Amino acid sequence: MVRTTRRTFCRDEGGSVLAEALLLLPVLTIFSIGVLEFGNVLWQRHQVQTGVRDAARYWSRCQSAGATFNSWCSVSIAKNIAFYGTPDGSGSPRVPGWTDPADLTIEPNPQPSNPIPSDLVTVTGRLDYRGSPLFGALNIPIVTIRYTHSERYLGW
User: Fold this and answer.
1) Are strands 104-107 and 143-152 parallel, antiparallel or unpaired?
2) HEC string of 90-129?
3) Percent of the chain clearing pLDDT 70 (strictly above)
4) How large is the average pLDDT for residues 37-55?
5) For residues 100 and 133, what is the distance between their CA atoms, to the nearest angstrom?
6) Is 152 in a helix, a strand, or coil?
7) Most buried one in 12, 49, 88, 114, CB count within 10 A?
8) CB 1: neighbour CB atoms within 10 A?
9) How confident is the model at residue 25 (pLDDT cuts 50, 70, 90)?
10) How many whole angstroms separate alpha carbon 76 and alpha carbon 62?
11) Neighbours of 104 (CB within 10 A)
């Protein structure tokens, strides 16, 4: 009787699927959350890059005000273009939480009055990534996304 029960137990594979699933489920869950979180970081970085490039492109084409010319360009318009994608700042931000004017620096400010071909406009954007609650649970420090873009100053 004992021998028969032992043979049946060793040959039965009904519980092996459950045991394998219980071992693999936590690993797959953590891996999936990590892939989604990493993808979100890359998406937000791409959005910051796009905003910084747009602001640099706008600022590099702005002509400085002179004695006979009144420039309509402003740093606030450049920041609105970076943060919202529109000059008036309407709509939703490109990246949730990226609306602080201190997170975007534009140099030179104001534009050079007598530009030379080597003058550059440099825009730097910074974003503190606010991840999922998993970041806090795992004590992962805040990830800072930075991007700098330079363009030759053209004026109009």
Assistant:
1) unpaired
2) CCCCCCCCCCCHHHEEEECCCCCCCCCCCCEEEEEEEEEE
3) 86
4) 91
5) 23
6) strand
7) 49
8) 5
9) very high
10) 13
11) 22
Structure tokens at 102: 């201190």
pTM to 2 decimal places: 0.75
Bridge-partner residues for 120, per DSSP? 152
Q: 138-150 pLDDT, tens per residue?
A: 777 888 889 999 8
Residue 126: beta bridge partners? 146
User: Considering the chain, what is the average pLDDT of its residues?
Assistant: 82
Quote the DSSP letter at residue 130: -
- For residue 98, which of 52, 58, 57, 56 has the smallest C-alpha distance? 52
Q: Residue 91: its pLDDT value, please?
A: 86
Would you list the DSSP string of 3-43? HHHHHHHHH--TTHHHHHHHHHHHHHHHHHHHHHHHHHHHH
Question: Can you state the angle between helices 75-84 and 16-60, rounded to 10 degrees?
Answer: 160
Per DSSP, the three-state class of 66 is coil
Mean pLDDT across the stretch 69-98?
A: 84
CA distance 121 to 115: 11
The answer to whether the Cα torsion of 37, 85, 151, 110 is positive or negative is negative
